[in-house]
Amino acid sequence: MDVFLRPLIDELKELWVHGLDTRDAAYENGVFRMRATLLWTVNDFPARSSLSGWSGQGYRACPTCNEDTPSMRVIGKTAYFGHRRFLPTNHHWRSNLQFDGRTERKRPPRRFSTTDILEQLRRVKTGIPGKHPNYGGVKRKRGDEELNWWKKSIFYELPYWADIELKHNLDVMHIEKNVCDSLLGTLLADPHKSKDTDNTRRDLAKLGIRQELHLFEDGNKLMKPAADYTFSEANRRKFCRFIRSVKFPDGFASNLSKNIAQNDSRLLGLKSHDCHVIMQRLLPVGCRSLVSKNIWSTIVELCTFFKQLCASTVNVSDMVEAQKQLVLILCKLERIFPPTYFDIMIHLVLHLPEEAILGGLVHMRWMYPFERYLKRLKDYVRNATKPEGSIAKGYVVDEALTFCSRYFDDVETRFNRPDRNDDGIHPTRQLSVFESQCKPLGKQSYVELDNDARDKAEFYILNNSPELEPYLNEHKQELQVRLREGCYNINEVHRTEFAAWFFEKIYAMHRMQAPEVTTELLSLSSKTNMVVSSYPACIVNGVRFVTHEHDVRLRTQNSGVSVPGTGQEMFYGQLQEILEFSYLNGFSVVLFRYKWFKCDSKHMVTENNITSIDINGEAYKDDQFILASQAKQVFYVADPSRGPNWCVVQHVKHRSIWDITDDGLSDIDLLQYNSSSNFTLFVDLGNLQEINLLRRDQDVIPIVQPVTNASQHVTDDSSFLNDVDEVELSDEEDESVEEYADEETYAENDIDTEEDDDDRSYHASDSD
Q: Which of 25, 245, 748, 767 shows the smallest number of beta carbons within 10 Å?
């Protein structure tokens, strides 16, 4: 690796020491001396080992915990188990024997400074990599003083590298995917990815814990009790059908129904963004009624952390609190899942908040853009026997075409091609309601409204025009003088009479040639046509909306909407009609007519950051219109735990769409869930003594191989219960990387195709 990095290191040293003359018109002579520094590296965990020099295998695989990595030997692998060590020394969980059969007396791992790391690197011996005759034809064994260092990184040649605290980022993309794969594989009892194997049960027997899950003999068969953290066969089908039924908004995610096995038993071929969406959107909802409350709440807490971590606005105080809560979450996972479940990827989750504090938003530090670009380079390969040459030739051709396309103004290229959901540029108006425009999609039809519906629509337009606020207040004051309070409902009279009063007022001012009466104001005071245009779909501000009648026939869902109330309350509904009202002089206003759901405490429930709503009831039948520019898209996911008429509301934050205030500062919109503070990460400690991990619907599962004695199948491993301080280390003792590199996790399965960019979102959306 260092051979390939040598040219880069030499250039980086030159840029730091001497700099490079760079032209800039802001300087008098047009040239300034530019210096550059390497901030950090972004890579997956195996590549991190090659770049940093710290091996990601063995008992000390964690680069942050260093020599204090909590680990133990189980049958055939190393488990990174023992997170009670991170708890306060007086915490009562430390003395609980139900975790691993022992009390935890070790202090929390030390925090190693940059000076400590340099001192460790001074003890690393310089050797020849690989098998060499000097070492008897085998690999050189590391000494205890070298810990997990196998080399000093070439980046330390940079003068500033030793002082950087965050040198190599832990990739959130791959960590989230592997955590999701482990959860889904174990919950669905996937024979290829489940961590609840036969050896796992033998581990429990050796540790002397969870006797209800131990293997036992029944005649000449070895029986495995069904664990509560796995779905039954019926529940597996329910969960897979739930995933199959989910419909996402346009451009939000891929169609997950294609990843369901034909027998509805497991999920296949999930890519990184699929796992991102499942972890943060679907898993907390889908498993709520399929596992016990203790297990479900722990899974929800873990998913909430990832949602908080991937928010587009991350507060340091939230990450500090998340660091404390994650210790409790991992301890709860240790009480539920067996030690085999805890590979290095599960442990690394604990250090993500600290890196977020040091490095900032994860969207600048994860692998999504790099993996997609690698896929693009692989697509250049036309001759499989010479892939490097094909990539080089394809890159040169693409660069030449890119250069030429910059000069083609009248030819559509990928640089001037409009986005899929681009609604164009609408003219600026003096009245904001006339800016409520859209790009209509589908066949145009005409709808004739009755007088009552038209009056309600017209008053809504007038009442939601900020420029008309003086006229609205003036009319209310006249009504208060003319009508006695208590005898009349002034608001109702104001709603029914304001349009006619406003028309007479404006036309009287127009006849007097008042300068404030503009063409737009005169058009707005006039009545709209009785016949309005109707469309099945439209695009507003880069977001696609589709009426519910048309939406049910599609594989996407674009009919959900949310609108904020006067306070912190939210209103949710389904789009019924897209109506365009025409005024004089060619002006028009687009309104959405919605079916609003009841949002009281009886019909809307929020639990563990999950909002469920009853879509059967309808509210506000007399107030169904909103401006197209006011709509914010949501989508609904069926809530199996509450019944067929209940859905979970999922907010959407679209790509390349930002809320910018007048002062230029980013508007932290609480309704879009784009801030880490919008999610309350609270860990329910519950009563761990009452957790029963035996599933009652099916007591035992027979293992295929008949045996005569279950104890004969327990591997004799003398280091089984020993920790890192008691075991001699070697490079070839453990292969923990196999857990997260299974089925080419970092190759074919994790590279999203370029075509997927249209229907995948890799920032906070979903970040959402």
A: 25
